[in-house]
């Protein structure tokens, strides 16, 4: 089982619902404008705005960027204390209590999707009442990143095991996928050939970010055709 | 002129800094301690309030602490390389300078390694790599190599110190018990001498590959990532060359200060400054060769991610640092070192200060410019690094601690190896006019003219 994700850039409108959902689900602190100005915000998913061409022939593409959960993750190799590792089902996980804050993984990662806690997290009221009890709050001095909503994966896995059945396609929904109004984000098992995400990953429209580096990212971006052609 | 009188005079001159303590010693120690305590106080704020008190951000996760880490560990290459290579090649002129060089190694290494503590997000967990370690991580390679190097260089400093510790055991007015314990019952028998020479010989060989490995793996912390302009095979040798280069400069500056403050003019002579100056000149040329090699391949390859970093150095926000580095590492010291007329003690010392500044700038440019322009273009205008007061205070603290270690070392042990100088004088068969103050007589430690 290898969890993976397909993001249809032709569907993405850049509404950033995924960003908000991710923050709420994973207790990602709200940095505020002051921290944002200093490059001190924490984010597990961001929407990058890429402009192509020159005025008046301009095309804007919005690109949700999150940890791509590499097959050969460079961040895993460089961590001195093995606080970042790859799980058997293909997640690149971070052991928060073990992280000592060398920030080596941040330079190991060519996608710049790791965030460091420069200070203890805080939430202004009433956001402090919205902490998700399923996810630990991280403290200052450690690195954190997208987990593919591992808590949701575990919940579905446990339920499936209890009911003695296989996990269904699209049964696991990370917060970003669930919140996307355009259904641009699809999550599932890449090892299951019939799953939606596996089929999308085979699509001629699919490409992997920085594939030439050989990191084997498990997030696929789809672009190029008319989105209505999607099967 | 008897041998005993000559030896006595050398001992007297070299033990003077240990035995006689003036007011300037206390003033210097006081000033240095004040800087150190201010640095510790500033860092305590960071420890209390979090690493966010430093100026780093996303994407510049590494800042002054890492710059100082690489810089000081580079400085530490002075002792070993100079002392070990000169010993192994039986260079007679090494005799008065090896200990001063070996001491730099130990102090610079300890201070360099201390940066890990200032740098970590959770310094209280600095021990975790002892129980959870990932052997694939270049940071663990650093831990292994640097701890080996610290043990090796302390041994290498200690071994040649043993006969002098025996002298201190017999002549010192304070800490005689400590000197006695450290002297290991040295009586100077031929058997003891043979054993000591053998041990020093083995250490001189063993320490060279360790030293080379240390700065190679320090560079691997950067080169093993895919970060633009770090991921380069040239980084290992480039860092080693830079380390020796800055190490020579540090040794020369230290010698220039010590000869004035401790009256060691007879031992740190124009000859040493001339020879080490020539060595530094050689390394300035090698440094330029590597620097051109590194930057030219990037410019010619013209890959956008790499060029972004390169142009930030050549003409972008890091241009002042980059060109300052080129000036200080090559353009300014070159004419001073190239001509015999300017290759005087003053000239070589000025050139060394330039080199030290230039090599510090090199570390800054390498770390911060690549950090500021990662592969993901979206990150470029996110965070701009400017060091906070805490980082600057800690940097000042490190330089002060380096000086303090040196001052205290000079107060406790002779900075010039007494027995090796005696040995050299004896072998050279120096004849000295009996009426002169022999310890300060010119030609005392002049090399063997073959």
Give the neighbour order of strands across the main sheet of chain A.
Answer: 8-1-10-9
Shape of chain B: globular
- How much of the polypeptide of chain B forms β-strand, as a percent range? under 5%
Number of contiguous helices of chain A: 7
Largest beta-sheet details of chain B: none
CATH topology of chain A: Alpha-Beta Plaits
Give the N-terminus to C-terminus distance of chain A in angstroms: 24 Å
In short:
The complex is a heterodimer of chains A (231) and B (450). Chain A has 231 residues and is an alpha+beta fold.
Question: Can you walk me through this structure?
Answer:
The complex is a heterodimer of chains A (231) and B (450). By secondary structure, chain A is of the alpha+beta class. Chain A has helices at 17-26, 32-37, 74-78, 104-108, 150-162, 175-179, 196-202, and strands at residues 3-8, 45-52, 59-66, 84-86, 92-94, 115-116, 143-144, 185-189, 206-207, 219-222. Chain A contains 7 helices and 10 strands. In chain A, the strands form 4 sheets. In chain A, strands 8-1-10-9 form a 4-stranded mixed sheet. Chain A is globular, with a radius of gyration of 18 Å. Chain B has 450 residues and is an all-alpha fold. Chain B has one domain (3-440): Up-down Bundle (Formate dehydrogenase/DMSO reductase fold). Chain B has 18 helices and no strands. In chain B, α5 runs antiparallel to α17 (389-412). The longest helix of chain B is centred in the middle third of the chain and has 34 residues, at 190-223. The two termini of chain B are 24 Å apart. Chains A and B meet through α3, α4 and β6 of A and α7 of B.
